[in-house]
Design goal:
The chain is built from 24 helices and 30 strands. The strands form 6 sheets. Strands 9-8-11-10-12-13-14 form a 7-stranded mixed β-sheet, with helices on both faces. Strands 20, 25, 26, 27, 28, 29 and 30 form a 7-stranded antiparallel β-sheet that branches. α3 (91-104) links the parallel β5 (84-87) and β6 (108-111). It is flat, with a radius of gyration of 32 Å.
């Protein structure tokens, strides 16, 4: 959801050299060799043979021509202007080639060559050098270490890559950080009759990033759906902001992402519950969800959803009808649809009547419709037309199993005929391999999505529903909550790196309106007893020491003290034990506060992440947080909608809502606390990690209270 305090990363402009990459009037390939089967030659030949509409210059020192095209020694020798340089020289001389391009006035470059950041320190220096050159001369750079760029627009027809074949033109754009993966994707897509509008391997992202490319494709009239493969995220917040703009509004385009590398961010994060659980992949899930990005786990799932989004109309809802010639697959598809959140449509009476008239008496006319194993094309068409016209049906799945009497080719042609008249999306699953291939070819050529298994079709439909649901989501403006920023600054500005004392941490939370109970830092047992008498027993004693982070480990917490005598004894026992196990610990005093009534224990966490910036975590607290890891994440700050989503997406939400007759927890108090915590971590860059564990939540309408807090500062 949009906020007024999103980071000020401006949307990259379309004229950042990207038109010179995708629509160059002239291209120079630097480093061409005359040997077929090598990357330098194949890239040059691919541009030449793809039907490129501009002028092509081979830069090949020592050669008079390449494939009958006159060659030049240096790019500076080309008399005319050059829009795009494709560089295939060895890494050690790429900087010299780019410098010549800069002096020539070349607007953009694609560096195919490897040997940069990916090979270690020497490569890092080389990459920084070419970044500096591009910045000096204003060159838009794709790469290095990439496959290249393809534009299938008939007005350009550029295959500046070493892919084996030029893909066909279509409405899908594909962006990838992995060049090797690109060749497999192109081959896969060709086998599925899928084409592309733009195809980009962006490699090390030394210049143009995936963010720049997303903004460009948002404005590209040839692209309807954007697919993205990522191995690393450098600016997760900028990606989120770009996606929010791209996936909503009048020119909205779906973004589907495969993000590899499902690992934590390292041992340093383990200093708090939030840090240990908030790995990059966990935050990715939240970022993508809140930005409208559809994350899928495999390329197959990505293309399964992409072909529905590209080739079929958007469904009006999630109600699906299933037509099959075999009962078993129909039942399997029903189970899959329901499990993925789709609804099995209930037919209108007139639909049931039409099916009854056109199908045999033994056919099943309820959803899923079973036209029976001996069904031929006429029976399929009658069923499809009846179901398609039902106002209760939003989308249709057609299943076929090959039987001896099944006219596969004619049934496929009949499906195509029905689809041409329909305004609702349709997907098919002709189950099998060789026998059904003729039908699959007909369907795919007509751009009717086909899936090997009905379950895969249902998953694709569910992903399309996620796009639909996101577009219907109301976005809210973020309004800052009242907070005493001056008070927090006065506490933390002069403190060194490390943990705040508990009294300081509670004061920080109180300044931002979080529910902090009455408390006092007391220097001795008498002072502690006097304060306890003032606020009323029972009370809690908590040791305060810079050297003691985990208080329970050193018996630094005593609960349920009922009177002054118990308190003084507990104080003495605590100090004696700490002196024994941690003789060098500097004890500032004890924190005294009243016992918080029993309630639901939840954790609220915050972390300043290197990739995503300030992030929030919510989940079950106390002893359960590390055991069950039932947590959700969001980028801070958050509005009411995201706070609600965070709370309601944990698996244990039923407990908070009141399971088995128990009183529901004050969920509104949790949401308010999350919003305030999000504002705090966003406002103060020095706060590195923060855990409120537990926040004890009373029944609905009775609020919550902070039972324990840790705040860690950066230097």
């Amino acid at each position: 959801m949009t906020t007024k305090s999103e980071s000020p990363n401006p949307a990259p402009l379309i004229d950042r050299g990207l038109d010179s990459i995708f629509y160059p009037q002239s291209v120079a390939v630097l480093g061409v060799t005359p040997t077929p089967g090598t990357v330098p030659y194949d890239i040059f030949y691919n541009i030449l043979a793809s039907g490129y509409k501009g002028v092509l210059y081979p830069i090949a020192p020592g050669k008079k021509s390449i494939s009958a095209v006159p060659a030049y020694r240096y790019v500076s020798d080309v008399e005319a202007d050059v829009d795009l340089a494709v560089i295939v020289f060895p890494a050690v001389v790429v900087d010299k080639a780019l410098e010549m391009c800069g002096k020539k006035g070349v607007k953009a470059a694609i560096v195919i060559s490897a040997g940069f950041r990916e090979v270690g320190p020497k490569g890092v220096k080389r990459e920084q050098r070419i970044k500096d050159i591009c910045a000096e001369y204003g060159i838009a750079l794709i790469g290095p270490n990439c496959l290249g760029v393809i534009n299938t627009d008939p007005g350009c027809m550029l295959n500046a890559s070493f892919a084996r074949k030029m893909p066909s033109e279509d409405r899908i754009a594909f962006l990838s950080q992995s060049g090797a993966l690109c060749t497999a994707v192109l081959d896969y897509a060709r086998g599925k009759n899928i084409g592309f509008s733009k195809f980009v391997s962006f490699g090390n992202m030394a210049g143009i990033t995936e963010i720049d490319l997303l903004y460009y494709l948002h404005q590209d009239p040839k692209t309807d759906v954007i697919l993205l493969y990522l191995e690393e995220l450098r600016n997760g917040r900028a990606l989120m902001e770009a996606a929010r703009k791209i996936t909503r509004g009048p020119n909205a385009k779906p973004i589907l992402v495969v993000k590899s590398g499902r690992t934590s961010q390292g041992a340093d994060a383990a200093s708090s519950h939030t840090g240990s659980l908030a790995g990059e992949d966990s935050i990715c899930e939240a970022v993508f969800r809140d930005a409208g990005i559809i994350r899928v786990n495999t390329l197959d799932a990505m293309f399964n959803a992409a072909i529905l989004l590209t080739y079929q109309p958007m469904p009006a809802g999630n109600r699906v009808a299933i037509v099959t010639n075999a009962g078993g697959p129909g039942v399997m598809a029903t189970d899959a649809a329901v499990s993925w959140g789709l609804e099995i449509a209930r037919f209108q009476p007139q639909t049931t009547s039409r099916l009854q008239e056109s199908l045999p008496a033994v056919a099943n006319i309820k959803n899923p419709v079973d036209v029976i194993g001996d069904a031929r094309s006429d029976r399929y068409e009658a069923a499809l037309e009846a179901v398609m016209q039902d106002a209760n049906v939003d989308q249709l799945l057609v299943i076929l199993t090959p039987q001896s009497m099944t006219d596969i080719q004619e049934i496929a042609q009949g499906i195509v005929k029905v689809q041409k008249k329909a305004l609702k999306p349709m997907a098919c699953s002709f189950m099998g391999a060789s026998d059904v291939q003729v039908g699959i070819d007909i369907l795919e050529q007509a751009h009717i999505p086909h899936y090997i298994l009905p379950e895969l079709a249902c998953k694709a439909m569910a992903n399309v529903q996620r796009v639909c649901k996101w577009r219907q989501t109301e976005l809210e403006d973020f309004e800052p909550l009242p907070a005493d920023r001056t008070a927090v600054a006065a506490i933390i500005d002069d403190l060194p790196e490390g943990y705040l004392a508990e009294d300081q941490a509670l004061a920080v939370l109180k300044a931002y309106g979080l529910p902090v109970p009455k408390h006092k830092l007391c220097k001795d047992a008498d002072q502690a007893a006097a304060f306890a008498q003032k606020i009323g027993f029972p009370v809690v004693l908590r040791v305060v020491s810079p050297q003691i982070v985990h208080k329970y480990d050193v018996k630094g917490v005593v609960l349920n003290l009922e009177n002054a005598e118990q308190l003084k004894k507990a104080y003495k026992d605590m100090m004696d034990h700490i002196a024994k196990v941690l003789p060098d610990a500097e004890v500032t005093g004890v924190l005294v506060r009243g016992m918080i009534p029993a309630g639901h224990e939840v954790i609220l966490g915050a972390k300043r992440d290197a990739v995503f910036g300030p992030t929030l975590m919510f989940g079950l607290g106390g002893i359960f947080v590390e055991t069950f890891k039932d947590v959700t994440f969001a980028l801070a700050p958050i509005d009411e909608g995201i706070a609600s989503r965070m709370v309601r997406q944990i698996k244990a939400i039923g407990l908070l809502k009141g399971a088995r007759g128990a009183e529901p927890a004050d969920i509104a108090a949790i949401e308010q606390s999350l919003r305030r915590l999000g504002q705090l971590i966003s406002d103060f860059e020095r706060i590195r990690e923060l855990d409120i564990n537990p926040l004890i939540v009373a029944p609905a309408g009775q609020g919550a209270a902070v039972a324990d807090v840790r705040i860690r500062l950066d230097g």
